[in-house]
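Model the whole thing, not chain by chain.
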Amino acid sequence: MTLQSIVDKLGATVALGAERLDTEVEHAFASDLMSDVLTLKDTPVLVTGLCNVQTIRTCDMANLDVVVFVRNKRPTEDMIELAEDNDMVLICSQYSMFKTCGLLWELGMKPLY
Amino acid sequence: MHQEYTVIEGDFVNAGKASSSVKKTLKQLNVNPQVVKRVVVALYEAEVNAIAHAYGGKVLVDIDADKIKMVVADKGPGIPDIALAMQEGYSTARPEVRDMGFGAGMGLPNMQKNVDKLNVTSEVGVGTTVEMEVNFG
């Protein structure tokens, strides 16, 4: 599915990368623990409640390009600047982690494990 | 090629700068992307550890044709029991470290999983040195 379909399903806003919403994605991984994210071999969409510069750095190290922040968390200017350098897409969901994941599941997104 | 970076205590905003810079260098050198990922994940965890647990330190990186050697040396409280610190889930991290998405006791185990050689030496009250090597081939 496209990132646009994720944005539509979540009624989300796009903080960065609106021009890249035609990107196709298949898998998602949800965690607030960045050490967990650093163990991933694949590059899923990251769903997280952790909204700070380390979220973006972790994605840089793990080669993840798409983050969905939950509970209406908004990335700061510093985060957006760093994410821009890495051609990332940052999406803000108004829903909780649980509901966001539920909606993405309904949409057909697959887990890694 | 030799690179050096300084790590400052509690400077979470800049945690990962050294790893990010090493990633760019290795990409320019056309190192296999999967190897690059192993290198930067291990170095990033080590950087975060130095910032989270110590009073600052140095990151020294040496890149040869066939391998990268990384040393993260901090001045800090040291690790009294290295074998215990290597266990997944064991952590002494402060709440602010956990707020940054770390501190779950996965740092050293993550380093070990990603590098070909890991050597941790530590003296209580002096500091800790983490030496890592990853082969490109």
